[in-house]
Amino acid sequence: MRIDGAEVIVTSPGRNFVTLKITTADGVVGWGDATLNGRELSVASYLRDHVAPLLIGRDAHRIEDTWQYLYRGGYWRRGPVTMAAIAAVDTALWDIKAKVAGLPLYQLLGGASRDRCLVYGHASGRGIPELSDSIREHLELGFRAIRVQTGVPGLDSVYGVASSSAASVGGSGRYDYEPARRAALPAEESWDTRAYLRHVPSVFEAVRNEFGPELILLHDAHHRLTPIQAARLGKSLEPYDLFWLEDVTPAENPEALRLVREHTTTPLAIGEVFNTVWDYQTLIREQLIDYVRSPVTHAGGITGVRRIIDYAAMYQVKSGMHGPTDVSPVGLAAAVHLGLAVHNFGIQEYMLHSPETMAVFGPTFEFAEGGLRPGEDPGLGIHFDEDLAAKYPYEPAYLPTNRLSDGTVHDW
């Protein structure tokens, strides 16, 4: 099973994706996702110029050895670019191994631990009436868990709030939120923490009053709060029984979560910007979080994320893998296979990809009864259309930046 080719494909069917195609000498093809939102070409170059030449002639079955070869052999370890590139290789090799075995990937990971993976969708609105409409749309689509984000009075643009309803995605009549904007420079947004902290509890009070106690609700603070502000938010949201509060404070300061834990029992999720199990050591060992958020795409592939999830299991911490539309259907399929197999699965983020994206990638996973289940095709269940992908060239796109009212750059 020698690797004969490694090709990097950059395509933009609605948004930019970086996909790795690995081909063995006997023609078996594996697919990997290397998309890094707003910095896609950095990973494409890393793969094309530095990683692909190292793969030719290697045994495709030696997945662990290849992972260690790329991680330790590069010397400059970790980081989103390196780990996204390793993730693409790792996922593609698992895809190949499962295809050779004639089995869907989850069977090679130990088989199914559940019938399907519970997912949550993204409901948003500039105000509570618009948010309620969005929640109802998601319920009609079959979601049983919903992340709630709203505009904040006095702010023109807020993370997590869909800005367009012109296109229909998944029959919902709303375009799924995609913050990366196609432009030569990043957009600049403004932020007011005090206004946010005053507003959010009233939003959840209104949602609970309208939709009742059984609906699973989540919220993302997106790294914007200091530890004491995060503690205040968690405490104020306790009456509304959140499934989790995500990214309450910048993740690179793990000690901050000790203070948050002291003041609130609201479950905490963190880690979508983490790339390895080493990033989580303090947070998991001291049980400062309840869910790990790293996606397969950004944290070293199935091999890398399995290490994180297995370590988390020792401390009763569960998975909650990142999965909006900046993870391609390849990365999402890998997450669903992994989530179906591991014992300590918690929930999977799921945003509906555009019809153009689905046509290019041809995934076989299915959404029903509030969850995702991988298809039964051998491998990941991806049927990538290279000819169609070529019709969608890359377009520069950047995530926004954020400033306070006095002009200070703030966490977006």
From TrEMBL:
Superkingdom assignment: Bacteria
Domain Mandelate racemase/muconate lactonizing enzyme C-terminal: 128-267
One Pfam family named in its UniProt record: MR_MLE_N
Protein name: Starvation-sensing protein RspA
Lineage start: Bacteria, Bacillati, Actinomycetota, Actinomycetes, Pseudonocardiales
